[in-house]
Amino acid sequence: MKKLEEIILSHGEVYGKDILKVDSFLNHQIKPKLIQEMAEEFADHFKDKNITKILTVESSGIAPALLTGLKLGCDVVFARKQKSLTTDDNTYSSTCYSYTKEEMKRLMVSKNFLSEEDNVLLIDDFLANGQAAKAMVAICKQAGANVCGIGIVIEKSYQDGRALLDDMGIDVYSLARISHMDGKEIDFID
Ligand code: G4P
Ligand code: NA
Ligand code: NA
Questions:
Q1: Which of 51, 52, 20, 50 lies closest to 153, judged by CA?
Q2: Burial of 6 (0-12, 13-18, 19+ CB in 10 A)
Q3: What are the TM regions of this chain, as residue ranges (predicted)?
């Protein structure tokens, strides 16, 4: 998505090789019109997959997931993050390790909102090491739901997540794919 790449170049701040700060349109302030255009791209790519539910992770995945759900006409569920690692009988849950935050977290989804009838589209703002994505896949598996693919706003292709999801046979559709970042430079894969 050309427009997203341009906004990343003009508004993104790079910290070292790994962290891209995009607080002005995605992670803190949110630009609705831009998110709507992202949602149109996701909806167009996945429109023939009979998506019945979108699953994302709070908090930054919710905006793109919501507008994609509006476009595809399905409900949106966000996995909640819990600090406590205790389980609850009425939830599906999976733990993952956050490399950026250096902590374990548990993602959980109520059993009321995901079932074996569902064709699920996963959405997230960033794909880095893929641990959040992997946890969402695990949650879908517990529910017996079918994972139809994953829509990512910004993929850092040089980190492990993309290859991990490719190896799982998942259709990964990323709107911007960063091949390299360093200081002021950001390179994209076409
Ligand atoms: P992973 O899921 O791909 O393994 O990534 P990781 O644990 O490293 O990411 C932890 C959090 O940091 C996630 O958000 C993820 O979206 C975000 N993240 C990863 N790389 C970047 C980056 O380069 N820039 C920015 N801005 N975020 C990045 P989160 O902690 O779950 O927070 P939020 O959804 O509430 O914003
Ligand atoms: Na984030
Ligand atoms: Na996120």
A1: 20
A2: exposed
A3: none
Reading the chain (190 residues) residue by residue, the pLDDT tens digits are: 999 999 999 999 999 888 999 999 999 999 999 999 999 999 999 999 999 999 999 999 999 999 999 999 999 999 999 866 667 789 999 998 888 888 888 999 999 999 999 999 999 999 999 999 999 999 999 999 999 999 999 999 999 999 999 999 999 999 999 999 987 799 999 8
Ligand 3: distance of its center to the CA of 133 in Å? 9
Distance (angstroms) between ligand 1 centre and the Cα of 126 equals: 6
**C-beta of residue 157 within 8 angstroms of C-beta of residue 189:** yes
Number of domains in the chain: 1
Q: Which residue has the tokens 């949602």?
A: 39
Pick the atom of ligand 1 nearest to 61's CA.
34
| CA 152 vs CA 68, 110, 158: distances in Å | 12, 23, 15
Question: Ligand 1: does its nearest atom lie under 6 Å from the Cβ of 23?
Answer: no
Quote the domain boundaries for residue 169. 2-188
What CATH code is carried by the domain that includes residue 49?
Answer: 3.40.50.2020
* Closest ligand 1 atom number to CA of residue 97: 7
Neighbours of 80 (CB within 10 A): 15
